[in-house]
Amino acid sequence: MKKEMESTVKNICRDSGNDKIHLLDILRRVQNQFGCVSDEAIDLIAKSLNIPRVDVESTVTFYSFLSKEPKGQIVIRLCNDIIDRMNGYDKVAKAFREELGIDFGETTKDGKISLENTPCIGMCDQAPAALVNGEVVTYLSTDRAREIVKILRLTGNPKKLVQRLGDGNNAHELVKSMVQNNIRRAGEVVFSLAESQPNIALEKALAMSPVEVINEVKTARLRGRGGAGFPTGMKWEFTRAANGDKKYIICNADEGEPGTFKDRVLLTELPDRIFEGMTIAGYAIGAEEGIMYLRGEYEYLYNFLEATLEKRRKDGLLGKNVMGKKEFNFDIRIQLGAGAYICGEETALISSCEGFRGDPKNRPPFPAQRGFLGYPSCINNVETFCAVLSILDKGAGWFAELGSRGSAGTKVLSVSGDCQSPGIYEYPFGITIKKLLKDVGAEDAMAVQVGGASGQMIGEKDYDRIICFDDLATGGSIMIFGPQRNILEVVDYFMEFFIEESCGYCTPCRVGNVVLRNYLQKIISGKGEPSDLDFLQKLGENIKAASRCGLGQTSPNPILSTLKNFHPVYAAMVREETEGLQPTFDIQAALRDSEAITGRKSVLFIH
Amino acid sequence: MDKPKIATAALTGCFGCHMSILDIDDRILKLIELVDFNKSPINDIKEFTTRCRIGIVEGACATEENVEVLKDFRKHCDTLIALGDCAVMGGINAMRNTIPLKECLEEAYLNGPSVYNPEKKIPGDREIPLLLDRVYTCSEVVKIDFKLPGCPPSADTIWTALVALLENRPLELPYELIKYD
Ligand SMILES: Cc1cc2nc3c(=O)[nH]c(=O)nc-3n(C[C@H](O)[C@H](O)[C@H](O)COP(=O)(O)O)c2cc1C
Ligand code: SF4
Q1: Residues A201, A203: Cα–Cα separation, whole Å
Q2: Would you list which residues of chain A are within 8 Å, Cβ to Cβ, of chain B?
Q3: A509, A515, A557: which to mutate for ligand 2, most atoms within 8 A of CB?
Q4: CB 3.0 to 4.6 Å from A77: which of A118, A190, A233, A569, for a disulfide?
Q5: Are B57 and B70 in contact (CB under 8 A)?
C-alpha cells in the first residue's frame, strides 16, 4: 500500500513535470486519489518538486478542499450560506446527519461518506444546494437528502444523483448537471452575445492595432465587472506599457462572493465567447498566455470548458498565429481552485495560480506591473470579457450610451433570497432597487444586501437609489430579505463567513473581525449597551483602514451599513447598565464547574 | 474639606502591585496628606466604612470571593483602577484558561507527582472560595475606569497616575514608565 502510494504520488508529480507551479493541481489529484494529502504524501511531493516541506503543508492546510486527515470516498458539502439557511438548510442538514449517522466534519465508519459545510457554492437561486464530490445537487429537501444518501450507499457514484438535467448547456454531454440557468432577463450587452456571430469581434480586433483595441475599450468607458469597477481600458494600457518578457491575461472565474452566481451562467452558456474576449485582451496587452482561474466549486464545468478550448485550438482561434494573424500566438489554460474565497482577490488569485497558498500580496507593485510569476498580468472578471466583445461588435459609442453616467453598459445581477423569481437579470446600469424588486417579485422586501457579504445592506428608504459604481456598486450579488427575517442574524452570518475566509495575515482582519462578531453576538443576546454600538463603529472603521487586502477592507461593511441603515434594530437591543457591572459576566455559569467538582453550592452567590 | 478617600484590594495575584505602591518610598507621607485610606490591606481595614473617590484593584478574578470583592469595590468607588497585568489581562493566572478546571484541580490535588492525598479528594470546604471556570480580567466582571498595565507597574507610574487623577489633570506618562521589557 505504502509502495503503491509512493509510486502514484511520484507519477502525479511527474505528470506535472515536477514543476512547483502545478502544486495545487498535484495536491488536488492526490486528495482525490487517497481522500487526503497525508504527511507521507507531503514528504514525497516536497521531495519530487524540490521545495521545502512547509510550502506543501501550508498549501494543503489553506484550501478547504484539501485535507491532511482522511476523508470519505465521497464528500457531501452542504452549502450553509445565508440564502440556504433561509431555504431550509437546517432541516436538510438534520436529514443528512440522521441518515448518515454522523455529524458535520465526520466520516462514516466504513470510510465511504464525509459530511461537511461549505460557504456559498454559487447556487443561491436553487438553494439549498450541495456539492457531492464535483457534482452539484440543488433544490434539496429532507426527502431528497435521504434519497441522496441511499443512492450514494447503493451505487457509490455521485453521477447517479442527477436525475433531470438542467436547461441550456447544463444538459450538454460534458456537463450533465441538474443546475438551472434561471436567466430571467437577457440584456443588451452580455446575453445578446448569444445572438451575435462568434469571433467577429476577435476578427475586428485583430484588424486593429493593440493600442486601437485598448482605445476602443477606453472610449466605451468599460469598468471591471468583478466588483471594484476599475476602468478596464486603463488596466490594459498599464499592463501593455509595463516592462516584462512575457505578459499574462487572467480571467477571474472564482466567483466566491456570497450570493453571486452570474459567472456560473456565463461560463455555462457563453464559454466560447469568454475565451474570445480573453484572446482579444491577450492581443491588446501583448500576452501569449491566458489563465482562467475556475473556482473548485465549478469543477463540474471543467471538462466542458476544456473541450471548448480544444475546439478553439482546432479552429485556429488559439495557438500559433491566431486567426491567421502573424506573430500573434495565444493560448489559455484553466487553473482549478480548491475552495477559498480569498482567491478571488486578484493578488491572492495570482499566488494560487503560482501553486501555493492563496495569500494576497502587498501592493504596489500592482499585478499590471508585476503579477503572475513576476510578469505583468491583467486580471479581469468573466463578465468584463463578455462586455469587451459587445463593444467591438456594436461599437464603443453604442456601449457608452447605455447605462448611467459613470457606469456604461449593463450589469448581470444574481438575485436570490425572498423573492418570487430568483435568478439572473441583466439591466443597464442605473436601475433603481425599487424597479428591480418589482421585476423579481419582492416588493415587500425589508432589506436588500447589494454587493454580497462585502457590500452593503439597505432598507426601504434607499430603494430609489440606483445600481452603478458611484451609488450602489455590486459585482452582481443582490440578496433580498423579507419582513420575516432577523437582520442581525444575517449580519452575524456574514461575519462568520469573513472570519472563516480571512487569510490571517493582518491582525486587524484576523482578530478584529472576531472581536466585531463577539460584540455583535453580545448585542444579539440582549446584553449589549449603547457604548457597544460606538465601539462597533470605531473598530469597524479601524479594520477597514488597517487591512492589507479587499477582504479586510470590506469585512466590517455588513455591520457598518446596518448600523447606518437599520439603527433602530440595534437601538432596540441595547440597554444602559447602571450598576457598573458587565452584563456578559454570568457568575452562576462561571461557578457551575466548581460546584460540580467539589459537590457543594456556593455560599457567596446563593441560587 | 475632607480628604478624598482611597481603597485598595488584591484579588488573585502576587501582591507585587501593592509592593510597588509601597515603593513610592517617602512619597507615602505626601500621599497620606493627599488622601485618607479606607478599606485596604495597607491599613488592614476589612470593610468599606464610606464611599471612596478611588479604588485600586490588583489581581485577576479567579474565585467567587474575588468577584464579590470586585463588585463591592465597584459599588463603593467613584473611579476604579485595574492595577497591573493580572487585573488588566489576567496575567500568569490566566495560563490555566486553556485547561479545563477539572483537569487543573486533578493535577494539583490527585495526580501531580508530589501529591500526598490519601483521601483522594479535591478540597471543597466551605471556607475555601470556589474557583471560577476560568480566570477573568477585572473588566470582564465590572466596568473599569482606568487600566495601568505592568508587572508590576513601577512606583513612579502609580504615583504619577494617582497624583494626576487627584489633581484632575490628564495623565502623561513618559516613555520609560510604559515600556515593559
Ligand atoms: C476578497 C475578494 C474576493 C474577490 N472575489 C472576486 C471574484 O470572485 N471574482 C471577481 O471577478 N473579482 C473578485 N474580486 C475582485 C478582484 O480582486 C479584481 O478586482 C477583479 O477580478 C478585477 O476584474 P475586473 O476589473 O474585470 O472587475 C475579489 C476581491 C476581493 C477583495
Ligand atoms: S485583509 Fe484579511 S484576507 Fe486580506 S491579507 Fe489581511 S488578513 Fe488576509
Answers
A1: 5
A2: 577, 579-582, 584-585, 587, 589-595, 597-600, 602-605
A3: A509
A4: A118
A5: yes
Q: What is the H or E stretch that residue A346 is in?
A: helix A346-353
Q: Are strands B5-10 and A423-428 parallel, antiparallel or unpaired?
A: unpaired
Contact A137, A148 (CB under 8 A): yes
- Identify the CATH class of A183-401: alpha beta
Q: Which of A579, A585, A587, A606 to mutate to test binding with chain B, by most B CBs within 10 Å of its CB?
A: A585
Ligand 1: centre distance to CA A136 (Å): 24
The CATH number for A404-479, chosen from 3.40.50.720, 2.40.30.170, 3.40.309.10, 3.10.20.600, is: 3.10.20.600
DSSP 8-state code for residue A15:
H
- The stretch B124-153 carries a mean pLDDT of 96
Which atom, in ligand 2's list, is nearest to the CA of A342?
3
Residue A548 Cα to ligand 2 middle (Å): 6
- The per-residue pLDDT for B180 is 78
CA of A553 to the centre of ligand 2 (A): 8
Question: Which numbered ligand comes closest to the C-alpha of A455?
Answer: 1
- Model ipTM? 0.94
pLDDT tens, A440-490?
999 999 999 999 999 999 999 999 999 999 999 999 999 999 999 999 999
Contact criterion met (CB below 8 Å) for A214 and A240: yes
Whole-Å CA distances, A83 to A259, A265, A524, A535: 8, 18, 20, 29
List CB contacts (< 8 A) between A579 and chain B.
74-75
Helix intervals (H) in A16-110: 23-34, 39-49, 53-62, 82-86, 89-100
In contact, A342 and A502? CB cutoff 8 Å: yes
Do A417 and A83 touch, CB atoms closer than 8 A? Answer: yes
Q: Which residue has the cell 518538486?
A: A49
Q: What are the grid coordinates assigned to A443, written together?
A: 416588493
Whether residue A537 is predicted with pLDDT greater than 70 in this model: the reply is yes
Over residues B44-56, the pLDDT tens digits come to: 999 999 999 999 9
Phi, psi of B60 (to 5 degrees): -100, 170
b/e burial code for range A352-373 (CB count within 10 A of at least 16 → b): bbbbbbbbbbeeeebbbbbbbe
Query: What homologous superfamily does CATH list for A84-163?
Result: Glutaredoxin (3.40.30.10)
Q: List the 20-49 stretch of B: residues with Cβ below 8 A of A.
A: none
Q: Which domains does chain B have, with CATH numbers?
A: 5-96+134-178 (3.40.50.700)
Q: What is the DSSP letter of A330?
A: B
CB A44 within 8 A of CB A10: yes
Which residue carries 488588566 as its cell?
Answer: B88
- Is the Cβ of B4 closer than 8 Å to some Cβ of chain A? no
Q: All 3 cell numbers of residue B101?
A: 478546571
Beta-carbon separation of A598 and B124 below 8 A: yes
pLDDT value of residue A545: 98
Q: Is A472 in contact with A466 (CB distance < 8 Å)? A: yes
Residue A329 in 3-state DSSP?
coil
Q: What is the Cα Rg of chain B in Å? A: 18
% of chain A at pLDDT higher than 90: 98
> What is the per-residue pLDDT across A84-111, written as a single tens digit (0 to 9) for each?
999 999 999 999 999 999 999 999 999 9
Q: Return the percent helix, strand and coil in chain A, to nearest 5.
A: 50, 15, 40
d(CA B142, CA B158): 21
Query: What is the C-alpha separation between A340 and A344, in angstroms, rounded?
Result: 8
pLDDT(B2) > 90: no
Distance CA A517, CA A513 (A): 6
Kindly state the cell numbers that stand for A468. 452603478
Give the HSE-up count for residue A501: Cα atoms under 13 Å, Cβ half-sphere: 30
Contacts of A145 (CB under 8 A, 6+ apart): A92, A95, A96, A99
